[in-house]
Amino acid sequence: MIRIALFGAGAIGAVHASNVAANPDCTLAYIVDPQLARAESLAAQHDATALPDADTVLRDTSLDAVIIGSSTNAHEAQLLATVAAGKACLCEKPLADSLEGAARCLQAARAAGVVAAVGFNRRLDGQYREVFDRVRAGELGQVEMLHVASRGNRAPAPETAPLSGGMLREKGTHFYDLVCWIAGSDPVEVYAAGACRVDPRFADYGDIDTATLTLRLADDTLATFDFGRRTAFGQDELIEVFGAQGMLVSGRQRDGDVHLHAGHQTVGPGIHHGWHDRFADSYVEELACFVRALNGEASVHATLADAVRAQAVAEAAVVSNRENRPVRVEPIWEH
Amino acid sequence: MIRIALFGAGAIGAVHASNVAANPDCTLAYIVDPQLARAESLAAQHDATALPDADTVLRDTSLDAVIIGSSTNAHEAQLLATVAAGKACLCEKPLADSLEGAARCLQAARAAGVVAAVGFNRRLDGQYREVFDRVRAGELGQVEMLHVASRGNRAPAPETAPLSGGMLREKGTHFYDLVCWIAGSDPVEVYAAGACRVDPRFADYGDIDTATLTLRLADDTLATFDFGRRTAFGQDELIEVFGAQGMLVSGRQRDGDVHLHAGHQTVGPGIHHGWHDRFADSYVEELACFVRALNGEASVHATLADAVRAQAVAEAAVVSNRENRPVRVEPIWEH
Amino acid sequence: MIRIALFGAGAIGAVHASNVAANPDCTLAYIVDPQLARAESLAAQHDATALPDADTVLRDTSLDAVIIGSSTNAHEAQLLATVAAGKACLCEKPLADSLEGAARCLQAARAAGVVAAVGFNRRLDGQYREVFDRVRAGELGQVEMLHVASRGNRAPAPETAPLSGGMLREKGTHFYDLVCWIAGSDPVEVYAAGACRVDPRFADYGDIDTATLTLRLADDTLATFDFGRRTAFGQDELIEVFGAQGMLVSGRQRDGDVHLHAGHQTVGPGIHHGWHDRFADSYVEELACFVRALNGEASVHATLADAVRAQAVAEAAVVSNRENRPVRVEPIWEH
Amino acid sequence: MIRIALFGAGAIGAVHASNVAANPDCTLAYIVDPQLARAESLAAQHDATALPDADTVLRDTSLDAVIIGSSTNAHEAQLLATVAAGKACLCEKPLADSLEGAARCLQAARAAGVVAAVGFNRRLDGQYREVFDRVRAGELGQVEMLHVASRGNRAPAPETAPLSGGMLREKGTHFYDLVCWIAGSDPVEVYAAGACRVDPRFADYGDIDTATLTLRLADDTLATFDFGRRTAFGQDELIEVFGAQGMLVSGRQRDGDVHLHAGHQTVGPGIHHGWHDRFADSYVEELACFVRALNGEASVHATLADAVRAQAVAEAAVVSNRENRPVRVEPIWEH
After folding, report:
1. What value does the mean pLDDT take over residues A295-309?
2. Which residues of A163-177 are buried (b: 16+ CB within 10 A; e: fewer)?
3. pLDDT band at D97; cut points 50, 70, 90
4. Which residue of A has its CA nearest to B254?
5. What's the mean pLDDT in B138-153?
6. Cα(C197)–Cα(B244) distance, integer angstroms
7. Where are the beta strands (DSSP E) in chain A?
8. How far apart are alpha carbons C247 and A234 in whole angstroms?
9. pLDDT at residue B334, rounded to an integer
């Protein structure tokens, strides 16, 4: 039985807490959040101990691992403390709010020799995993281009941008990672063009809500990204991988298959309402994969080096958008 | 250059007239219709001679072929006169308003030794032809079941039922033929259950507007048919062919591929508005095939024996619906 | 906490056992099966007591309800004993192996005044429920025709036919019920044409493996059914509901949305592999609905009268297939 | 009857020749091509006069209009001569091989006061026209992002790049135009990242075969483009228009609707094989629209100012790709 502490009792923390509680191989021992009330509320549901900070927790020698689901600006310090205490770690992305911070996390975890994974849960989504498997198996021949659309169904509050790192980091790291992982090539240069079309207050907090990016990989594969912060129709995600021998499309999943024929239209189901509807299963699978890694049965699904690589793209994209020029991706991740 | 006369200047006659006029290998010499005014109107468009009856036409030794596109109750007499005059013949379905009449047509055409085809144009529709080719090539293994849905977008006038022979003949023969042709087996018994749900006046004319049928073929393949006289959404046609190794579905063709994502719906294009939108190409191909047969380059796409076979099903279905019992199909078509 | 006994430790019993175990409002107290070894094996997984017969169980005054998931030929006696003991009952379909037996079950449950439901789980499938809701809300206007395709991915062993009642009962009752429930009309006459195409041994056990049916409802709505015992491509289920103002199609659910474009093809996901993949959720929901009914918060999703109605169709279909004639449905269900 | 001369007897010239010949309101008087043999061959098919140069043609006072379908590097001189002779003009895109040249064309045509259109035939494709109409009607609310994928099924010969202007001009102008036209906003800045992945010889001729672009419009709408020179699966075209109230997708048109269910796959029709299969109708409609404009019944579907606007994007994209920086689009088109 693996004993786990959860850092962060917000939305993503609640997802992890439920999954740990439901996993027969784990026990949820602690929930840590400086907002103690919400830690207590979540802990009460899952029979865990709520605490406002991590110190006691990390001294508990019977604790095996920590899941870090706090806001981005807290990740680095918590990860460094966790690995220093010799605990395994599954950290939400991005690892840190700077590239240097992310690199420090990677170095510290390697030095500590603990199992460490980053929460790129989409790698464990059935559709994305299928695309990866088939591309890596050579079904498309040489990959030449990728396209990603990702738009959340509802915008976060603009004032959370400083906590999350903004759209190019918070949303972006998932997709920079997916593109490199699927294509099997490292990023070299990014150009990002952003705008505020959804809500002008994002600009007040130094963020954008609409962006298009072009990413060049080391083998000259090119990728485009369409990012947005809200839609009128659900959680919009699409990935196209174009290769010399064909194209794989991971489409917008429909919510069922009931169609109405009437008038000169065919009205079908919409896409998934939101992020959690679409990806709940992938978080369950992420935890299962982390458990297998702790048991020595498998590798983690995404390493801290993968996280640093994605963050290197994110930091370059932020500069690119600010300075309106293509920016080289700093190659510091060392797989 | 093949010289062709057209009998019948109604809706289907107009389709044939346009196609003959546009075919570089044919000349439309005559249009014959007892309603002379409509014959003249159509003839004027295509530079043909309009006549109220067939006598002069069939005595024209330079005439090669006749397309019979008149109402069903006129087919038999016109076909017998045509083949007696030694002219080739492409006759709309059904061949006659009785099974005996259809059999007389088959015998007379065989005795005359002329090229004779029946207007089962759907055999030349791209989708249906593809299904046929792939089934006959063995892609499904042994065929076990078929399902047909066919509903026109707009009901004919109920008072035309005596002219057309009613839904089980006029619509039905197309699909009895398709099912036997695709399955490669002859019909042995049919059960038809009809109703008037669209317009009670169909009952006044001895017809129905809604029907479900079950047809058993000689090799125990079973087929269901859903027939209706109008829809709220276009020309509805679907064929499913189920076999031991897979299933081929010829679906409802969408009219383009533009989709709107909005709210919790995806709104796509409707199906083809009507019969002609959906099948215009197949009539062009039918004429081309007839021309090839006249030139000795190919067989006709559907023989009069095929027509008799389909009509044998239709006549049994009419009795079945009237007497509410399964009825054997009289096996008189002799391929 | 509702204490539940499960009768029957076969495939469907295992599904119910897992769902009861996972439902926070229920306890699985007993598993009863004359094959004691499989009862014990299943009971061990869920911390229940295994017994070879029901007597002790039904005398346990703390027991609230019984789920009957044994083979069809055992249903009637178990249901009568259960309701006689004053226990609530969720019984798999069909209720009995004769219409009279089913009627006795209905009468006994009514006399006992207990909550009683039949396992028409498809009523709680998301797609079918959506079709029902939208049809009953009037979205299609007057319903005129329905079509059902249902083919399991893998045939049962032919020798189980006497236990299950055969395809027209075991598979059929689900779909006779769905059609009447969606259309909102009672069945009046059925015609069934069966064949053995999958495995000739079904005939040795008095069963068929391929069937087409036509069902007429009281308001002259007509339905066709295509039933088969195995496919080369998964659990095949389709329902079309055609009405005066449109058509709703509950299509074959695809397993994801990844498409490959290559050559002159587009290769997409297949349909669900089997019955359990497709309908697992509906069994969870069925139990939740039963619990709500036991708590007085809702009606059962399908009553024993619904079960008798579906069985009346099944029994008429069996006669129809045997005697090759349409057969009236005996109207004994009294809603 | 409108008398038309065609300049250019290559692939696109042949398309125009057939359409003019088939249009009842037009006569194809001349076909002009310095490669006289191919002009003669095409002229023989359509009963026109073949000539090696335009002088005689433009002096023919009975000539109404010229369709310029020669290679890009010949467009400007031919267009200037045509409008100087007072003839109407439908010119293939791009107008010229420099932005200045395109501007000269626009000025000359305006000065001459003739009807002048550019061959942006995709504006008359049914799907793209539908997207335009619905977006302009406000169905999406404010447009925020667009995505275009366009990949031809077969790469042109690399050595034609100097004649065509290269991919960013020859292919690109269609899509820069569509994006601005649909969005209703002018282009302001473009970033283009190109590569040679299909055939390294494109680089030898100063061209690329793979490119991703980001285009910013005046209202901050952002568009991404994925361009490629060959696919393994047909003529790949997709347009997504994302707005505040929904998203319209003009999808990859399938070639029919026959699906095979077998194994754990569903195999459907591929997309259109090539450019002509997909867009043949739009060229017919383009000619019809040009004829209506000549008859004073309608505006041209795309003006020379539209052509200059698209070319301004193309020229900026060429610089962007060469210098690896975003480049402002020179605003010289004056609607």
Report:
1. 97
2. bbbbbbbbbbbbbbb
3. confident
4. A266
5. 98
6. 9
7. 2-7, 26-32, 49-51, 65-68, 88-91, 116-118, 143-151, 187-195, 210-217, 222-228, 236-243, 246-250, 258-262, 265-269, 327-328
8. 25
9. 81
Count of alpha carbons within 13 Å of C50, Cβ hemisphere only?
Answer: 19
B261: contact with D, CB 8 A cutoff: yes
**CA distance linking residue D195 with residue C107, whole number of Å:** 78
Cβ atoms B147, B200 nearer than 8 A:
no
Helix A172-183 × helix A126-136 angle, to 10°? 30
Using one digit for the tens of pLDDT, what is the confidence trace for B78-128?
A: 999 999 999 999 999 999 989 999 999 999 999 999 999 999 999 999 999
The distance of D191 to chain A (nearest Cα, Å) reads 8
The pair of structure tokens assigned to D219 is 């209202």
Sort out which chain D residues have CB atoms less than 8 A from C264's CB and list them.
Answer: 233-234, 255, 269-270, 273
Mean of pLDDT over chain A: 96
pLDDT interval class at B164 (50, 70, 90): confident
D266 reaches C (C-beta below 8 A): yes
Q: Which one of D179, D216, D222, D323 makes the best mutation probe of the A interface by having the most chain A beta carbons within 10 Å? A: D222
**Between chain B and chain C, how many beta carbons pairs sit less than 8 Å apart?**
124
Structural contact between residues A95 and A308, judged by C-beta atoms closer than 8 angstroms: yes
Tokens encoding D74: 């010949």
Question: What are the tokens at B104?
Answer: 């007389």
Per DSSP, C330 falls in state: P
**Cβ atoms < 10 Å from Cβ of C157:** 12
- Chain B interface test: which of C226, C245, C254, C325 (most B C-beta within 10 Å): C226
Question: DSSP letters along B200-243, please?
Answer: THHHHTT--SEEEEEEEETTS-EEEEEEES--SSS-EEEEEEEE
Q: Which residues contact B262 (CB under 8 A, 6 or more apart)?
A: A232, A233, D139, D245, D246, D247
Say if CB C144 and CB C277 are below 8 A apart: no
